[in-house]
Amino acid sequence: MPRDSGLSTDEVEAAQTAPFVFFATVRSPGGSNVEALDREEEPSAVVRVDEVVAAPHALGDITGRDVTVRLVGPRLRRSQRLLFMASGLIYGNELGVSEVARVAPGRQASRLREEILEQRLRRHDNELRTRLSLAEIVLYGRIESIQPYVPESEAAAIPPIGEAAPSWRIADLLVWRALKGRPADAPRLLFLYPRTQKWSEMPLFVQGQEGIWLLHSPASGDTGASTFRPPAVTNSFQAPDELDFHAPGSIPRIQILLQMLGTQRSR
Asked: Under CATH, what is the fold of the domain 135-149+164-266?
């Protein structure tokens, strides 16, 4: 049924968390262009993506692509236009996703799009607030230099099969502004390099990079890769989460979130 109202509670949760959110038109009800999803016991449909609200960056722009959706709701009709919220299933020459929720946008598609983006932004801010509360130091600055960490003795670290063994890099940070905490000396940032499939979301950094870092003490246990313990480096920190680095333009938003955290603590 077309709807002109806001999202339900379940749809709000799906809008906040689903990796894929897109408007699409049904091309083949009950069809599939992904062999692994071509099963009678698992209803599916091929849809043409009309507009992407959210999707993993690694896939590029999927607008205009035919995507197979494994369905959990009622079967679809050809030419139906729907908003799908879905999780990823198969990435390759063709894309297969698993439906989490669907909405018939009706005439309120633009308002629905805005509401979903607001919900995703709200969740992002909540997750960022958590990272800010955990960070020992939040600073705006630049990476002056990067050098590999050379251990005194080779550690017996077994890499995942088919992957290169990651090693540690040390980035020396020039602090332009401390947004939280007071770094006594120039902090040093430890990070794993190269990025592996197992830790594909861990940030990598380059010399000359400018931005905002949320720095965490290695002693906090928040290393992002427990198999590889960080080396003991004087005045070192880590930024293992994708939310631990932000472009300079994010300073106003981060300052507001830090002020909100300070207000909460003072109550």
From this structure: OB fold (Dihydrolipoamide Acetyltransferase, E2P) (2.40.50)
